[in-house]
Specification:
This protein has 170 residues and is an alpha/beta fold. It is built from 5 helices and 8 strands; from the N terminus they run E-E-E-E-H-E-E-H-E-H-E-H-H. An 8-stranded mixed beta sheet has the order 2-1-8-7-6-5-4-3.
Length: 170
């Protein structure tokens, strides 16, 4: 089943296609599609000039082992950055999103992709995600209704709340 895109707390139509590198392909040899494409970081790094000349809207896919330092100089090119969660228990994407928003001031769309469940939505939003590709077999309507309100408030600071709770009570 296809993922269901939640954006701005509502179901949205996904106009982006994610480029997949096949088992017999390399970042240098994979065919580059046209349109709104989310390119894996390896393809971006290998063929940046070609991608820039052929695409008006560019997206980037970051996997857990991709080095953020390799692409921070290119952030202005990306309309969307998709961060992969290969397993529910892999939390590297949270750190990547937080760094992109807080340290590198990335203002475009941050999309959580992969093994994304409604249980994660509250926490994903806290670190800066604003779009979520929920697994296709999950109830997106229930996720929107309950996923962002798991807790009524949070004590610590985060991307979505720069003041800790004790400062906000005063």
């Amino acid at each position: 089943m296809m993922a269901q895109l939640i954006k701005d707390n509502t179901l949205a139509t996904d106009t982006w296609q994610t480029l997949e590198i096949g088992p017999d392909e390399t970042p240098e040899s994979v065919a580059l599609p046209s349109g709104d494409v989310i390119f894996p970081a390896a393809v971006w790094l290998a063929r940046k000039t070609e991608i820039i000349s052929g695409n008006k809207r560019i997206g980037l896919l970051l996997k857990g082992d991709d080095r953020l330092e390799d692409i921070v100089g290119d952030l202005d090119y990306f309309i969307v950055i998709a961060i992969d969660f290969p397993k529910f228990v892999d939390g590297r994407g949270y750190s990547t999103a937080s760094l992109l928003r807080q340290r590198y001031h990335y203002a475009g769309e941050l999309r959580a992709v992969g093994d994304v469940l409604h249980d994660q939505l509250f926490f994903l939003k806290r670190v800066g995600f604003d779009a979520y590709a929920l697994k296709g077999d999950k109830n997106a309507v229930q996720a929107i209704a309950k996923g962002f309100s798991t807790f009524s408030d949070a004590y610590q600071t985060s991307t979505d709340q720069p003041q800790p709770r004790f400062r906000r009570r005063a």
